[in-house]
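Q: I'm writing up a methods section and want to include an example of the input and output format. Could you take the sequence below and give the corresponding predicted structure tokens, formatted cleanly so I can copy it straight into the document?
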Amino acid sequence: MHGKGSARLWELIQQRIERRHDTAEIDRVIWDELGVECAVMFTDLTGFSRQVAKFGILHFLQIIHQQHALLCPVSERHGGTLIKTEADSMLLLFPRAADAVAAAVEMQRACAVANRARDPEDKMILCAGIGYGKLLRLPDDVFGHEVNLASKLGEDTAGSNEILVTPAGRAAAGDVPGVTWVEVEAAYAGESRCWRANYSCD
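A: Here is the clean output for your methods example:
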């Protein structure tokens, strides 16, 4: 299904344009064929643009390579799938919200361990945003309200070493071993609150 998802989606969108009286049925077909319910995570590296400006494109590529080598195996251990990379940001999907939160915590711990032996310009200071809900899944992309929220949390809102979770993601995650939750005020994509996952790197 997903291998042909992109072409199929745009075929149905074109039908939606042409058959304006029948959009409800077309929307049902789209969600039936391409809809999934899962967790979405966006990661970002704090201060990365400044590092690129200072140390150049090869340094950029080196950090991207190191990030994938370190964090993708962590994601996979928790059932995660890397959908795409944009600069220093990664978009990942997980079967459950608890899996995404547990993966984010392990990622933070892996970065903390790796950073001990690195020069300041080589450190990976990770931040992450997580959402959960019904999404449209394509081979190399994903669309949905929770995708937008997770993107804003991970790329624009979360600070160094933070894991921020949407209200829907928090509700779906439940109790996660080693994590305590704090509800915080945050303005992002029309929302006013989110949840911070507190964890220890020890």
